[in-house]
């Protein structure tokens, strides 16, 4: 039975799948736009610090006011309506809710919300890749201990990449690489919230009409989001980040199998088994023909001559040798597709991708020469961008994850393009999340966690 059939059967028994959403920004709004069209899926509550914004989001995506007029969560459960509130903890504590979608985009809050949901015996769909890259393997382990699902969000690129990786392995091909497309030039690394819209080519009028956060969109532009997502993919698939960070080689769909193969076979990868990004622009700014800017991909190798011949016979796009092929999905529709993760977690007990081990890390890296006393402002800000490197390298140098580079003061100077280390900053806030991150690091090193 597929998910829609399972949901139909579940709903016919009088038990809709009940879910809570934390965060009513762009992603959350896209989730909500589809949720009311899925019979048997009940959004019991929407939590956001700005309740007015949450209600505006619901109205924007077509919800009638009476549908989100429940005064309490209990009232929402009873009537089938939705309660809008500013208390995420209340969603985690609501016994009738089975799954929490964490869509705040804030790494510190995301970790706390996920822990609260797990402690409340809820499955977690972690839209918040920033939190997942920082502490995902630990959060997933906590969920497994309780028999719960901790899942990446289907519709976002990491989950869809994990799906393609699973396809490659289930078919018995040799996985070579996995990644996504992105509009990127090296100079974008130094973009700030003040310059970001110019890189998108949007006018002030277009920006004003949308629900766009300049800091968030700048994290897409400067490569930070790519690093975060590829670190999460590494942790979910067992692939590795390149030793010196993502290379962003330009490649179109017709070129994926040629570019994303090992250098010894004529490609751009230092070896097989890596994540990376297919840039949709050449370094000089020219657009790559037939690019995969909004999509995801995998490359793989035929295990034998017979399979190699089949690649050609059945129209697979291959490299010049015929040994390497590629598979891709040219789009991702983020929150419009995330119900797949919710239903998979609740009805099948399966994640649509999940962090399994600490293999990749997204570490804060200076956008300019930084001085002691300066404050770091996290992903998409003015001070740092994220570099995706192997977790082993991050652990060896004490790299500061980008998720902890929020409102922290530098103790030492850090040169432009240098990785910021834990020892370079004063960590005086969010010590609970710092402790969780340290616990995960100790576990990865095979050491017992130190007492807080």
Describe how the helices and strands are arranged.
Blueprint: H1 3-12, E1 17-22, H2 26-35, E2 41-47, H3 51-60, H4 73-79, E3 83-85, H5 88-93, E4 99-102, H6 107-119, E5 123-126, H7 129-145, E6 150-152, H8 157-171, E7 174-182, H9 196-200, H10 204-209, H11 214-221, H12 224-237, H13 256-259, E8 274-279, E9 296-301, H14 305-313, E10 324-329, H15 339-348, E11 360-366, E12 375-377, E13 384-390, H16 391-397, E14 406-410, E15 425-426, H17 431-444
Parallel strand pairs: 1-2, 1-4, 2-3, 4-5, 5-6, 7-8
Antiparallel strand pairs: 7-9, 9-10, 11-13, 12-14, 14-15
Q: Can you characterise this structure?
A:
This protein folds into three domains: 164 residues, 3-Layer(aba) Sandwich (Rossmann fold); 136 residues, no CATH class; 85 residues, Antifreeze-like/N-acetylneuraminic acid synthase C-terminal domain (Type Iii Antifreeze Protein Isoform Hplc 12, Alpha-Beta Complex), CATH 3.90.1210.10. β5, α7 and β6 form a beta-alpha-beta unit. The longest helix has 17 residues. The protein has 452 residues and is α/β, with parallel strands linked by helices. The strands form four sheets. It has a six-stranded parallel β-sheet with strand order 3-2-1-4-5-6, sandwiched between helices. A four-stranded mixed β-sheet has the order 8-7-9-10. Strands 12-14-15 form a three-stranded antiparallel β-sheet, with no helix packed on it. Helix content is 37%, strand content 17%. Pfam families: DRL_cat (PF21135), SAF (PF08666). This is Flagellar biosynthesis protein FlgA. Keywords: Cell projection, Cilium, Flagellum. It comes from Caballeronia novacaledonica.
């Amino acid at each position: 039975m597929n998910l829609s059939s399972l949901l139909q059967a579940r709903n016919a028994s009088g038990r809709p799948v009940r879910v809570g959403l934390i965060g009513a920004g762009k992603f959350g709004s896209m989730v909500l736009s589809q949720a009311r069209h899925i019979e048997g899926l009940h959004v019991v509550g929407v939590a956001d610090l700005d309740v007015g914004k949450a209600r505006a989001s619901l109205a924007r995506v077509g919800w009638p006011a009476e549908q989100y007029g429940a005064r309490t969560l209990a009232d929402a459960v009873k009537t089938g309506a939705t309660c809008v509130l500013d208390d995420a903890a209340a969603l985690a504590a609501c016994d009738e809710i089975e799954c929490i979608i964490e869509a705040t985009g804030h790494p510190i809050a995301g970790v706390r919300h996920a822990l609260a949901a797990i402690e409340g015996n809820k499955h977690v769909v972690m839209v918040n890749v920033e939190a997942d890259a920082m502490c995902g393997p630990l959060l997933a382990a906590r969920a497994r201990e309780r028999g719960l699902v901790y899942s990446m969000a289907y519709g976002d690129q990491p989950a869809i990449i994990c799906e393609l990786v699973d396809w490659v392995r289930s078919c018995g091909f040799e996985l070579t690489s996995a990644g996504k497309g992105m509009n990127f030039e090296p100079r974008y690394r130094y973009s700030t919230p003040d310059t970001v819209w110019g890189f998108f080519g949007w006018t002030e009028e277009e920006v004003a009409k949308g629900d766009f956060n300049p800091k968030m969109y700048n994290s897409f532009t400067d490569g930070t989001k790519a690093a975060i997502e590829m670190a999460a993919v590494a942790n979910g698939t067992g692939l590795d980040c390149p030793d010196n960070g993502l290379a962003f080689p330009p490649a179109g769909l017709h070129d994926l199998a040629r570019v994303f193969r090992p250098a010894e076979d004529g490609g751009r990868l230092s070896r097989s088994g890596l994540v990376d990004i297919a840039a949709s622009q050449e370094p000089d700014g020219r657009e790559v023909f037939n690019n995969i800017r909004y999509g995801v991909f995998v490359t793989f190798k035929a295990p034998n001559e017979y399979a190699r011949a089949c690649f050609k016979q059945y129209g697979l796009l291959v490299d010049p040798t015929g040994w390497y092929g590629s598979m891709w999905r040219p789009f991702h529709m983020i929150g419009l597709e995330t119900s797949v993760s919710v239903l998979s977690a609740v009805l099948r007990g399966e994640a649509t991708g999940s962090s399994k081990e600490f293999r990749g890390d997204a570490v804060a890296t200076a956008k300019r020469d930084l001085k002691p006393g300066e404050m770091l402002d996290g992903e998409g800000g003015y001070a740092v961008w994220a570099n995706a490197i192997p977790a082993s390298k991050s652990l060896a140098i004490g790299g500061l994850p980008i998720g902890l580079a929020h409102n922290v003061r530098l103790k030492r100077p850090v040169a432009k393009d240098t990785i910021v280390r834990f020892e370079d900053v004063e960590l005086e806030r969010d010590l609970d999340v710092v402790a969780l991150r340290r616990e995960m690091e100790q576990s990865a090193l095979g050491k017992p966690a130190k007492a807080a």
